[in-house]
Structure formats: structure tokens, C-alpha cells
Amino acid sequence: MSKQLQFKLVLLGESAVGKSSLVLRFVKDQFDDYRESTIGAAFLTQTVTLEDQTTVKFEIWDTAGQERYKSLAPMYYRNANCAVVVYDITQSASLEKARSWIRELQRQADPSIVIALCGNKADLSARRQVSQEEAKKYADEEGLMWGETSAKSGEGVQEIFTAIAKKLPQNAPASARASGRAGPSGRTGVDLNKQANAIPGQNEPCNC
Amino acid sequence: MDEEYDVVVLGTGLTECILSGLLSVEGKKVLHMDRNDYYGGDSASLNLTQLYRKFRPDKTPPTELGRDRDYAVDLIPKFIIASGELTRILVHTDVTRYLEFKQIAGSFVYRDGKISKVPSTEMEAVKSPLMGLFEKRRAKKFFEFLQNWKDEDPATHQGVNLDRDTMAAVYERFGLEPGTQDFIGHAMALYLDDDYKTKPARPAYERIVLYTSSMARYGKSPYIYPLYGLGELPQSFARLSAIYGGTYMLDKSIDAIVTDANGKFVGVRSGSEIVKAKQVIGDPSYFGAGKATDGGKVRVIEEGKVIRAICFLKHPIPGTDDADSAQIIIPQNQVGRRNDIYIAMVSSTHNVCSKDVYVAIVSTIVETDRPEQEIVPGLQLLGPIYDKFISVSSLYTPTSSGESDQIFITRSYDATSHFETVVDDVTNVWKRVVGKDLVLKKREVEVEA
Q1: N or C: which end of chain A has fewer CB within 10 A?
Q2: Measured between alpha carbons, how far is A161 from A168 in angstroms, rounded to an integer?
Q3: Keywords on this record (chain A) (predicted)?
Q4: Which phi-psi region, left, alpha or beta, contains residue B288 (left: φ > 0; alpha: ψ -120 to 50)?
């Protein structure tokens, strides 16, 4: 029987390493060379189907620029099941930033979070500053998944998200964990949107 | 920091975050700064470490209270009225997608030394000890009158003119006893004092209708509450702003408001840098907090004080039927005061503290020079208190509308039990900043399947 699981995935990494481009490639299979900083979107979902027909739906949170001055809200990390921490293989400083984001995740996020370190801009390997060995070694030490991607060519993008999907607990009651905030499906509390259509005010029965 | 912005917003309290979210959606270029390294300003929810840093910097939280990260202790006790204006903004901006809400389990009112549930169903009303049999009949007539009222149909008015007759006159017309008036005016219309009785009845009518329609929404109480505490509200509006291009800087000192020779706003100085913008919006703490600022100008004045006692309990509040959350109102008449005392209680059900801990905040408007004495009737209802953190805060209001100098200051969070006055402030500041009324548009959201 096919299962449907839903998880919250957060993106982290220095500005301009290609976080939004990576998501755009994954979700829409598009790339835009002159993509401006993220505006207006930043809440995307994409589904990965595994070999056993399990579908894993990612609810993807983009930083929306709040990473620039280290002003991400605790809400961002809350109930995140997985994180993709992105660096730019042509900027060694961006790996340093990635390390600090990983420390932040270890401090703020749930201890069971699955973290993937992702070296983006693999198409620019001529200008490479971060070797695969260095990044892989660090990822192994910290127990992180690791891969290189090119949002521009699409190389490695599907692979890294699929790998994450496989690593996530397949038997977890995902609806209870991830979809706490993941739209109407898994909500246990009150749904405000539902009442928006109700007739307000006077016509309702008085309860006194 | 070298760019020029349309609006700089100072402080990440709820009022400022709603404004910055709405302004960003409107296409304004917003820079939002806060001196603290956390979101929420005065309306933040703090973990234990932050709470102790604020109230007891020389102490560490006892391990007995559990994990630091399980706590989100509200500094300002308020609930969201289900059918109120904040709910409308949350829905229209689609900020609800970042939040999850739970009901507040019950609303209670203090009368003659004990607390009773404000009835939420007809069954409860019939059994309620708040009114005697005949009084219940009179009250029923009164509520039917309010419920059936239609402005355009004089037959429903029963000779009452809501815009001319006082609320006292309306009560009298239905022969309601003083205790019932206390209950209606304070536990339903949520007035903090009795001044409303001598004024035209319409606002009271509207408040009662808001209360009853909110009560009807989810059944248990008129209130809802966001999981992980009220501090999630400013964070979610800050995210809205960021998604629409707003820039966020926390942990940034704000050292001066820079003005030109005519006193008009130019920018904000932080250290040696100056950020320029056309307008500034901020909470009173960034504008002198009652004292004269640069150039000897007093930009905000104190209107009063509120005392709030954050109490950790190891048990539900006695008499609430072990409710996991509750509001208790002590009407002023019941304890010989001018202003009501409020208790707002939430617990681990709302993901704001460890299991078996209950966080109750007792608050009131300060009337004497011994404010701690004033909240004793509230504290006494709580049973044994494990620990308490008391603050007395000034309520500030701006001295100027801001139109002449483009400096727009928000108001402090008042003593009311809900966010309706916060939304009033938002719409008020919006009108002054933008020059027209706030019209909420449904946000276009991009969600890919």
C-alpha cells in the first residue's frame, strides 16, 4: 500500500549561494540567471515518489532574506524535519557560513532533524574553491548528508531531495509532526480559514 | 545599510510587525530593526533563559521546570477573539499558514467570592449559578433583543435608541440586576471599568455581539491562542514582510532618530551608520519612553501603568474544572476597584511550557502606589504559586500624529484581554503613514502542488 508522508524542509545558507534557485529547479524545473532575491513566493511544496510508491511531500520554507543579518525567527526552525544547508563551491567563505548554520540548527531545531549539506553551483567547477573531499569530510564528521548540485543545469538536484526523502523516518506519524503547520490536512487545532466564509455577527445564535 | 528605504520600523512587537507586513505587501521598501536579539519586543514570548535574563539576571532557571526550549512565556497576556479584527487580518494576509491555533478552554467570571463559567451554551446558561430563575428570564429577553436588533427595522428596537440611550438605561429597561450588569459589561463586553454605562449603548451592543458570535465559532470560549505562544504572531507577520522584500536586522542598537533642521525625520543612527528613510514607525521605547529625546522633544507620554504577574503553577486553577487554559475576569465592583483584574492561563496544551506546568498571568491597571497589593484578589484564586515574575509597565501614547515630522509612534500594549485595540492602533497608524484607510486585500499565494 502506498503511503503519503509530509515533512517541513527548511533552507539555510549565506545570501546568494542559490537557495531559491535550487528550490525553483526542484519544484518547477526552471532556472533564471538573473534571479533577484526572493520576493513573494517562499512557500513551495514538491512531492517525491520513492521506489516503494511512498510519496514524500516537502513543504519548503525559504529564508526570504531573513538570513542576511542573522534574523531568522525561531518559528522558521520549529518542527522542521529536514534542512538543506547550501554553500557555493566557488566561495570558500560560504562553507564557513554553512558550518555556523549547522551549529544553529543543532542548537535550535529538533535533535532528530535530517540535515543535508549541499554544494551548489557545481557547473562553475573551474572556479572551485571548496574541494569535494573537504566538504565530504566535514559532513561525515557531523553526520550530515552531502551532495553537490547545479541549480543551473539541474545536476544533482533531484538526487539530493530524493536522498533526503529516503532518509526521513518512513514510519513517523508525519501528519502529527511535520504538518503541524503544513496546511489543512494535518491540523489538530482550529482552522481560521474555515470560519472566514461563515456569516459573522448578528445572524448567529446567542449562546447566553 | 547604505540603501535608502521607504519606511524604517523600530521594534518587532506585534503592532510593528503587522504594519511592516502590510506595508511590504503594499510594495514599500521596509527595513525592520530591533535592539533585542529576539522577535516580539514587549509582546514577545520568552524561553526560561530569556525570562530569567529579563527578570532575574543573577539567577538560572531551576532544572525542576524542565527544558528551556519547551517554554514560550508571554510578556503581555492577551487572547485572540475568534471573530475579531486580528483574526480577519490573519486570514486575509494568509499568515495563518505559519500558525496553528487552539481554543482557550473556558472563560470565567468572579462573583461573590467564587468563580463561575461564563455560559457557552443554553444548557450551561440554564444551570449557571450566575443568575436566579427570574433574572435568567429577564436576561434571556435582553439577549434576544440584542440578537434580533436590525438598524433598519424599528420594530426590533423596542423603543431603544442605541446611539442616544445609555447602556445603563438599556439595562434598566430590561430590569437587569447589578450583578448581571457586571457579568455582561465586564465578562462579555469586556469593559475594564464602568464608564461605558453612562455612554450611548451602541459600542456595548457591538462588543456583546462580537463576544457571542466568537463564542459560537468554536464552542468553548470566545478565544483562540497560537501554539508556541503569542510571540509567534509578530514572527509570522515579520515573515510576511520578509517574503515581500522586507529586510530584518535584530540585535541592532538604535542610537538616535536623525531629523533635519525642521525636525522632519531623516534617518536612524546605529553606531556610526545612518540609515535613511522617508518615514519611521516604532514602539514608544525607541522614542524616549516618556522622557525628552534629542532636541528636548517629548514624543510619548505616560497614560497609566499596568501591573502583570507571570505565575508558574503546578496545577490547574481551582474551580475551573481542571481547564488547560482559561480567562478569569474579576469585575471591579466585586473587589471594590475601578478597573477589572484579569487572569489569563495557558499550559503545555499550547506548547508554552513543560507538562504539568500552568502559566497564569494576573494583570490590572494600577490605581495605587502599592500595585502588588492590587492583584492579590487574583493571586488568591490561583492556589499555591510555584514562582512569580512581576512587572509594572507604563502605557505610552504618542504626543503627535507624526504627519508633520514623519515619525509615527505606536501605543503600548494595554490592559485589555484581547488584541482588538492593537488592531485599532495598526489601522490608525496605517492611515497616518499611508494617508488612506487600510483595506485588506486577499493575498495571492503561490503554492505549487
Answers
A1: N
A2: 11
A3: Cell membrane, GTP-binding, Lipoprotein, Membrane, Nucleotide-binding, Prenylation, Protein transport, Transport
A4: left
Q: Which residue does chain A place closest to B141, by CA atoms?
A: A208
CA distance B39 to B37: 7
CA distance B328 to B375: 13
Q: Does B419 touch chain A (CB under 8 A)?
A: no
The answer to whether position A189 is within a domain reads no
The answer to whether B128 contacts chain A (CB < 8 Å) is no
**Are A192 and B150 in contact (CB < 8 Å)?**
no
Residue A206 belongs to a domain: no
* Nearest to B360, CA basis, from B345, B380, B379: B345
pLDDT in tens, chain B (449 residues): 568 999 999 999 999 999 999 999 999 999 999 999 999 999 999 999 999 999 999 999 999 999 988 999 999 999 999 999 999 999 989 899 899 999 999 999 998 889 999 887 777 777 888 888 899 999 999 999 998 999 999 999 999 999 999 999 999 999 999 988 988 999 899 999 999 999 999 999 999 999 989 988 887 889 999 999 999 999 999 999 999 999 999 999 999 999 999 999 999 999 999 999 999 999 999 998 767 776 677 899 999 999 999 999 999 999 999 999 999 999 999 999 999 999 999 999 999 999 999 999 999 999 999 999 999 999 999 999 999 999 999 999 999 999 999 999 999 999 999 999 999 999 999 999 999 999 986 655 544 33
With CB atoms and an 8 Å threshold, state whether A207 touches B119: yes
Q: What is the b/e burial string over A51-76, where b = at least 16 CB atoms within 10 angstroms of the residue's CB?
A: eeebebbbbbbbbbbbbbbebbbbbb
CB-CB: which of B140, B236, B243 is closest to A75?
B236
* Domain range enclosing A156: 3-167
Read off the CATH number of the domain in which A67 is found.
Answer: 3.40.50.300
Structurally, how many domains does chain A consist of? 1
Report the residue from A41, A193, A207 with minimal CB separation from B96: A193
Is A191 domain-assigned? no
- Cα dist from B117 to B139, B177, B218, B327, whole Å: 16, 18, 16, 10
Q: Which of B102, B228, B244 lies nearest to residue A78, judging by beta carbons?
A: B228
Which residue of chain B comes nearest to A73, CA vs CA?
Answer: B235
Q: Set out the domains of chain B in order of their start, with CATH numbers.
A: 1-103+223-304+396-448 (3.50.50.60), 106-218 (1.10.405.10)
**Would residue A184 count as lying in a domain?**
no
Interchain pair B243, A201: CB under 8 A: no
Residue A15 in contact with partner chain B when CB distance is under 8 A: no
